[in-house]
Specification:
six-stranded parallel beta sheet; 340 residues; alpha/beta; seven-stranded mixed beta sheet; 10 helices; single chain
Length: 340
């Protein structure tokens, strides 16, 4: 039997080790993927550290996967073929029987199958994935570009398109890092008057290169909220920065019935009072990632508009380097493991 290599963590908080495993066969309604690229997402730290319930070690993380179908399981042949280019993101499949699934809201499935949690993730040369997790990759996108779109891309893209903003509205993106640099590109391509908010005047030129019409330095004398109000108030703020204080500070910059869409994760609570929301009808909501169809839409939109993540690629053998750079915040902006 042939073997494949995977980067696994044997115990919670332990080091990565490259191991060889027997190549598995896909079961019914599953496929075997040859992984070409896998993004290293900050959420992977929750898996590596054992910070999520019901994790099983040894564990192979990775939920930003791009590759090709190598083998089809029973019941998949009508929709997929060997050789198809596919991506799998945070949405790694749904149960199909819980109440959200029966209502068609698969993204909030109570038994969501996240790669690395429900099954081995993409820090490997091979992955077995359910067919409802598969998104087609357009020919125009390289695997290294498609992989981060399965989490970072779809989260920002979907967060904007499912918001209350319409073309021409003022939309602000808080943070221009791993999520925000994509959010600014998507906002501009969707026809929004786009504002980038970040720390320091030095990032202004970069924000404009991404497509921002305005840049707000949150460390300047004028607060981000005041600067947004001076522009007329934001219909939507997409909060990608993992900083609850910075997120909370944007609420006063929303227009009446404006919407704060939170996708950046910070364990600290938001400091927002009911009075800030009630009189002007403002909305604060969290936004999860997106289904396989949402990922496919994200990939197609990115190919059409020339939107790409900024990535640094390293081979699977250098997983420690990639993970360490991501954790230190030194990545510009998405680390991607490659196997071929």
């Amino acid at each position: 039997m042939s073997v494949y290599r995977a980067a696994q963590v044997a115990t919670a908080g332990g080091p990565f080790e490259i191991v060889e495993r027997d190549v598995p066969q896909p079961g019914p309604c599953h496929v075997r993927m040859a992984v070409e690229a896998c993004g290293v997402c900050h959420s992977d730290a929750l898996f590596v550290s054992g910070g999520l319930p019901d994790l099983r070690f040894p564990l192979v993380p990775g939920h930003e996967i791009a590759g090709r179908i190598e083998e089809l399981g029973e019941g998949t042949q009508s929709a997929w073929q060997v050789g198809d280019r596919v991506a799998v993101g945070w949405f790694g499949g749904s149960c199909g029987h819980c109440t959200p699934c029966r209502q068609g809201d698969f993204m909030v499935c109570l038994n969501l199958k996240v790669p690395g949690w429900a099954y081995d993730g993409g820090y490997a040369e091979t992955v077995i994935a359910p067919v409802d997790a598969l998104a087609r990759i357009p020919d125009a996108l390289e695997a290294t570009d498609a992989a981060p779109m399965g989490c970072a891309g779809v989260t920002t893209f979907n967060g904007l398109r499912r918001s209350s903003a319409r073309p021409g509205d003022l939309v602000a993106v808080l943070g221009i890092g791993g999520l925000g640099h994509l959010g600014v590109q998507y906002a501009a391509a969707m026809g929004f008057e786009t504002v980038a908010i970040a720390r320091g005047a030095a990032k202004a030129d970069f924000a404009k290169e991404l497509g921002a019409h305005h840049y707000i330095d949150s460390t300047a004398g004028t607060t981000a909220a005041d600067a947004l109000r001076a522009l007329g108030g934001a219909r939507v703020v997409l909060a990608t920065a993992a900083n609850s204080e910075a997120i909370s500070a944007t609420v006063e910059g929303l227009s009446p019935r404006g919407e704060l869409v939170v996708i950046g994760v910070d364990p600290m609570p938001l400091r927002i009072s009911p009075a800030q929301l009630l009189m002007s009808g403002k909305v604060v909501r969290g936004h999860p990632s997106g289904t396989a169809q949402d990922v496919q839409d994200t990939l197609a939109f990115s190919a059409l508009h020339g939107i790409r993540p900024m990535t640094e690629t390293v081979p699977l053998d250098a997983v420690d380097e990639a993970y360490g750079k991501m954790m230190s915040g030194a990545a510009r902006f998405r680390m991607v493991l490659t196997t071929r």
